[in-house]
Amino acid sequence: MEVYTWRVREGEKDARLQSYVEKALPLLPGRYVRQAFEKRDVKVDGVRARAQDAVIPGSVISVYTPYAPEIPIAYEDDRVLVIVKPAGLCVEDENAGMTVLSLMEKRAKGEYRPRLCHRLDTQTCGLLVLCKDDESEEALKKAFRERTLKKEYECLVRGEMRPPKAVCSAFLVKNAALAKVRIVSHETPGSKPITTGYEVIGREGELSRLRVDLITGRTHQIRAHMAYLAHPLLGDDLYGDRTLNRRLKANGLKLCAVRLEILSLDAPLDYLNGRVFEIAAPF
Length: 283
Known about the structure:
Elements: E1 2-7, H1 17-24, H2 30-38, E2 42-44, E3 47-48, E4 60-65, E5 73-76, E6 80-85, H3 100-108, E7 115-116, E8 125-131, H4 134-145, E9 149-158, E10 165-175, E11 180-184, E12 192-204, E13 207-214, H5 221-228, H6 242-247, E14 255-262, E15 276-278
Parallel strand pairs: 8-14
Antiparallel strand pairs: 1-4, 2-3, 2-4, 5-6, 6-8, 7-8, 9-13, 9-14, 10-11, 10-12, 12-13, 14-15
């Protein structure tokens, strides 16, 4: 029996407990959520709860289920893991019932402590690197910091990109309170420079399929920068075209980290130099 326990963040506005649990445990199929409520295997502050109960900010929720979700593994050795993160799963959040880190810790069974070396936005899927020891963590974080580990993404955007290949620069301003960023053309107080390269690799009706080189890695950079260029990502309701998303029945953000190329890693991970990890986008 698996147990998922977390504290409801302050300000949570979900009115119904079942819908809240479904969002908090994104890899748990809906039938298992329903089953947990039917069997009275959902507790709030230690008391058995019902599906229609209200969500109480600050309360502790525990869900008991026989289902154990697994994250696909693209590569693993004694020091590192390359996983395929599902869309909708956050990498780390103490107020989330299920995260990349919590699932990988369950998988490790105490044999090692998985550590995050970089991040993907919650709605972004694709390749994500974790490590298993201090030396590997230091080497990987240095590689990401110095851009000796190259990341490429694939996405679907609105319209026909012109030109079909470009490197675009701007400035990004982050609003932490709103969990949102905005892009501006010139430097302003608090702004950070961004550079995004893209190439059109296909046309799909009124959409363009892009391969994106994230030259700087800022929060929501690809999503916000493409929207700034008048080509928002399909499925992006935060920065994008909600009318288009509804009309095309876009189920989730169409953005995937599809390729990792290791240009140079220090010891003890130098044996990985030259390796390329690549997956197909699921859209």
